[in-house]
């Protein structure tokens, strides 16, 4: 079997064989939507191969986190959605005999390799736009199914004593309960693990890989797997966030990626637009949602929206962006966050960014009761914090350098969401979409604050148009942070770093120089 991504097949098979040799495995993963789906895919693949495991999450895989992992009594560590960029540190522990690393990642590797390293960048596949961390985990899951022949008895994904549970990095002494026995697969498990393709797509969408409105490259093969397995449906649809859950007026009011005068950011304007349509847009006094409209009704709204865009002077290239490819999970209920890949990924981001990765994992593993309700509560809080953050940045403004723009939020925006706020604020008054944006925030203390190294979190966001012009924020954040004694990395369109407190000005100066060189 070549698997969904033939170029990765041999390396994936080697990683799978090594996992099958292990008595038990520690699964360590990142905390964002891509990391959570990566962990969920790996967890279910390990479960189906009857490999005992335990799951831990790390907000940042730094020297201390890797040392903590090395101090466990696990001989095999599976890293998902991180590990490549920290291979120099991981390698030191590997050389010392602490553990054997198996890495399924898509980030830029450090200047070292290891035997069981599954990363698309090693095989000429773009990890920023063609395969996510969840995609790498999915490739591994498919190889694991082939290697184990899918004929072993199943065990619980969070496994009781045999498999362990899920723990966040701040809860190392106790098991997290939200991914536990209440979690049931959302879809019927398949021996070939193709049912896990839906989670891989959620991870890719959450990692902003749907450039131009659809997934590309190796991601397309995973989409095909999901469609064939019956866990995904695709089709052209209105490219607005919230089609499943937002009432129609809010769907249009908050549709700001393509700004339509008189509708976007205009509550009364959106209401007037809808009232002018000859459709039944309310039922029992409640506004309907896009997901509840018939195809003819959707066509009526979309046509009127395009007509309004044309009449108000929106450029044709922008109008084209009103339609994109939708990725739908058909086995999830209509009108819920879990049915749309974009909304699903946002729900997951809202869990781990508030130190509840266990809740997000529980949702991915099929818990549609306790974990889902907790996730929805976290999402409501997340949206409120994002809205307040965007208002703050728009009100206070940003500082414009020659090639980039930036702001320092201090402790007014959480470090875990400041990058999202920065990206969402682009295009607001005084905040350009023609320059990348950098955002500083104070790092939150974990554990004993006296033991924490002083540092400032920096997040950066660009646009796919800027990337096409040569922008690579992974290089910008990595080189500029190391120039001031910090460290960083990520993807071309979004990256992060930590820098010593007091070095922000020097960091900005160097980052501006690098961006200028890239875009010249």
What is the strand and helix layout of this fold?
Blueprint lengths: L8 H13 L3 E5 L3 H16 L4 E5 L5 H8 L5 E5 L6 H9 L4 E5 L12 E2 L14 H16 L11 H4 L2 E3 L28 H10 L11 H12 L3 E6 L9 H6 L13 H9 L6 E2 L2 E2 L7 H17 L4 H5 L2 E6 L12 H12 L4 H8 L5 H27 L2 E2 L4 E4 L9 H8 L11 E6 L13 E6 L2 H5 L4 H11 L3 E4 L3 E6 L4 H16 L1
Helix pairs in contact: 1-5, 2-5, 2-7, 2-14, 5-7, 7-8, 7-13, 13-14, 13-15, 14-15, 15-16, 18-19
What do you see in this structure?
The structure is a single chain. The protein has 520 residues and is α/β, with parallel strands linked by helices. 41% of the residues lie in helices and 13% in strands. It has 19 helices and 16 strands. The strands form 4 sheets. It has a 6-stranded parallel beta sheet with strand order 5-4-3-1-2-6, with helices on both faces. Helix 13 packs antiparallel against helix 14, helix 13 packs across helix 15 and helix 15 crosses helix 16. It is globular, with a radius of gyration of 23 Å. About 8% of the residues have low confidence.
